[in-house]
Structure formats: structure tokens, C-alpha cells
Design goal:
Number of domains: 3
Number of strands: 21
CATH class of the largest domain: Mainly Beta
CATH topology of the largest domain: atp-gated p2x4 ion channel fold
Subcellular location: Endomembrane system
Radius of gyration: 49 Å
Helix content: 25-40%
Largest sheet: 15 strands, mixed
Number of helices: 10
Structural class: alpha+beta
Keywords: Ion channel, Ion transport, Ligand-gated ion channel, Membrane, Transmembrane, Transmembrane helix, Transport
Strand content: 25-35%
Shape: elongated
GO cellular component, one term: endomembrane system
Family: Belongs to the P2X receptor family.
InterPro entries: P2X_receptor (IPR059116)
Distance between the termini: 65 Å
Length: 454
Amino acid sequence: MPLPKIDWDGLLSYQTVKVVQVRDRRLGMIYYACCVAICVYIVYSVIKDQLYLQKEYVTNAQVRIETPEYCARSFSGQCLYYDASSVLPAVADQNAAAFITTRMTITNATVASADSDACDAMNPTSIGCMPLAPRSAGRLHYVADIERYTIMVDHTVRGESNSMISRTGDMVGVLRDTAGTAQRVYVPTWFANSTTDEVVKADVQGDTARLVRRPPTVPGDVMTVGELLGAANISSLDVLSFSPSARPDESIRESGLVLLVTIQYGNRAENSTALGYHYSVSYIPGAEARILEPVFKGAAGGPNQLQIRNRRGIRVVFVQKGQLGRFDFMALLTNLVASLALMRFAVLILEFALLWLLPEREQYREFKVQETDDYKSIRQRALSKKKSGALSRNTSQNQMPSASASGHHLHHGSGAKPDVLTSKLEKGLAVHLELEDSGRTTTVGSETLNQCKT
């Protein structure tokens, strides 16, 4: 059984673009509407996402948290009225984190030795001097009105590879809640009123009540603990805790909680050359915050008493991230080229409607899709025509000597010059015949025919 013949021209056919002008207003309206919408989207994306900037990620520089003094130290019932230094434990990590005490259990440790005055609480040299702090002996206290305590956040930022660097006092900062709404906007004192008005209009819709101007002597952003909790969508510290180790009726004020504050840096929308940032606060359900703090008490020569302070509170952790950018023409060009690829989407919509949806799709298809002849057959016809033309020329050349002898009367004489005659062949070719006495060679153009003998 012979193998099927493969049509290689059909299998390896090439498709090229053919421009067809379709005079149909429906298609034109759809196409140009899509083009306008895509152009508006491209311009909006370039401006909003600042695609004309060459951006790089920030590196962690420094975050410093301070707690300004709020109230004097005193004791009243089960509440502790602490100042700033007492709210923050001495053993807390002050690098990009802060611990704010909300509840504290104070236990005065005892020793097994009868002579406790002879023991050094910091350096117990015998087993009898080992401090004992049973939990049952502790006294529970709450820090009063902790929501009104304030913290100051001072931070710096720089790019990974370029020289872009800035600090809190020179940038515009915004405190946002979990829904992305600005709660506070912080601006430098040296900002002009017109610049401040632009910032207020852009971030807080002109609400000057949410505007905070940094005083010249304050290097960072000051906010209350209540504002941080509100930004994390925590209405009260008395809501129930999700901690696995918490009691069924235990609140987050008792168990403690963790707040993750993300500082997102970037270029300002109204002025891309200026840097800015915003705070985003997240509450991590189920996470506790606890610190055990030993406090030694006694005479200066050697403390003989130990107090254990079991602190529960709010652990605030800061994370710096974002991108800093500066204008770069190649970045703009690259993003424009990538965005213009969306124009192809409008063409695809029109092509689909043209060939499959509209009632005149059959007529449109006839104009748009054109199939050429099989070029194998065309080449074969051209080759056959070339061969037949060569064969006819050879036949004419072979018949020319007899035709010349019979169709023309040649004159020659001795001592005279060769006679030159002109003849016309069937195809209209001028043929010059020269008769020489010596060789009597007949020449047709540049081709030499057979010799003719008289």
C-alpha cells in the first residue's frame, strides 16, 4: 500500500498580516472606545504607581521608641500609676520594639535561711540563700489608664544601593487603620502652609483635626497607646484573649498581646521627589507578651532582698519595608512598552466580534481571510513553461539553415566582399548572414550554425 502523499506547502504554510479596512461604524466605535479606556488606564497606572521611577528596596536602618512621662508614680488600691520609666521594663528589647506594661504581678522573694540579712540576693553562696518566689505570694496590679500613655517613634531609612536616605523629621508620615483609612498625618514644622494643605487634602481629605505638626524639639511621631490599638481595630483591652494558655474569662489586658507595626516607605504621590511613609498596625491573635523582671533591694553594700515582677503588656514590634525611587527614563519607557501591549487586547475583542458574533461575519471572513494558490503547482507550471520554451528555441535553430537556403538568394563573386543579407525568422529575430569565400561560415547572431557548402 503506497504511503499517503504529504502536502508540505499546506503543512508548512506561512501566515502574514493583511490590512482590511472594514467600513462598519459598530466595529470602529468598539475599537476606539477600548483604545481610549486602555490609554486612560495606562496614564493612570504610570502616575499612581509611579512607574517612571527606578525603585529599590529599603534596608532596616533604625527605629527608636521612647515613652514620654505621663503621670507621677504612686499607689492606689490595685492600680499602679507608673511613669514612663516604670512602664517600660529594664530588660526589654529597645531595638525596633517596645514593651508597655498593662498588668504586673509583684512577688517578694524569700530565702530558706533564718538569717536572711546574711544572704546576698545577687550572689547567693549557699542553698539556704536561694530566693524563693511562689506564685501564690504575688500581688496583682494593673497599670491605670495605659491607653493614654504616649510613645514616640523615631526612625531613619536608606536605599540598598543609592544614596537616598532620610529621617522621620524630614518626611510626611501617616497612621492608617486596618481598612487603610488615615487616622493621623504627621508633617515637619518647616513645611510651608501650601505644602501642608496639599498633604492634608491628599491624605485626610482636608480634615485638619487629624493633622499633627511635629514640634522642632521632637524628632519623631508621638501617638497614644489608644491610637495604636484603634489602628489595629482593638476597641478595648478588656476583650477576651485568644491565647491557648489564657483562662476563659481572661482579657488581653491580663494576658498581653503583640502588635506588628509595619512602616511602609515610598515616594509621595503629590511630589515624587519627596519621601514618605505610613504606619500599618496589625494585631496577632493568640500571641502573649510577658517579661519576668528581677529587682534587687537592700543596702548598698549588698542587696539581701529580691522582688520578681511578672509583667504582661503590649509588645509593639516595628518592621521597615518599601521601595524608594528616582526618575529614570528607561524605567518609564519599559513600563510604557509593557502597558501598550494591552492594545492587542482591543484588537482581539474586535477580531472575535468580527469573525464570530456579527451577522455579516461570513462577508467579513471573505475579506479578512484569503488563501493563496498552491505554490507547488505554480512552480511546476513555471518550470514546464520554461522547458517548453527552451525546446521550441532548439527546434527553430535546427530548422534555420534549410529555411535560409530556400527562402533567400545569396550572391557572391570572386574577389568581391561578402554579401550581407538580413532575414526575419518566425519570432521576428533579425538574422545576419555572412558568406565568406574561405570558410563560407554562416552566423546567426552569436550562435554558429552548420557550415554550408556551395
